[in-house]
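input
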Amino acid sequence: KQKKMNARVDFTPMVDMIMLLVTFFMLCTTLLKPQTMEIAMPSDKEDLKDEDKSQVKASEAITVIIDENNAIYYFEGKPDEATLTPTAYGNDGIRKVLLAKNAEAMKHVEALKKEYSTKEVNEKTKAEYKEKLSEIRNGKKIGADGKAIPTPTVVIKPSDKASYKNLIDVLDEMQICNIGKYVIDNFTDDDQALVDAAKGGAQ
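output
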């Protein structure tokens, strides 16, 4: 009588092989750091002292208001003296306004890019570039005249009817235009009155 042989493959050694591979990839793979956008939100504390509040020059302040149906407005200076100007998204809209407001800093950013384009790319040069870029964006770099480079402070105010996409588009413009000082603020009744007045004037 012919004896039947049972063919069986033992996968027990494969467990050790899998654990070795997992350990290898864990040790050799560079972990990606999460890239987040730093956003300053208004404080809801009512007992803040005057020295703890951020003071912004009227000449450097620009407020961007986002409304429904892809509507976007801006004004410069103090809110009580403001008249909204309608604009649009993209190169010929709010980006053109921000680049004009941040023209001095943009010149230094271009010079910085040109300077580091000829240097060897490594962790040290990357850290130096980021630090110098941050100084320019935040108005901490001193120009040739011995004064700090003027940079605008952008206040972003999305209405309750504004879309999330429009807010992200405006935040992207902050990075494109190298705006270092910006904040998302609450949309108030006074802002709504300005928007209504701008809509009424456009009709």
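quick obs: The beta strands are 61-66, 72-76, 85-87, 153-158, 181-184.
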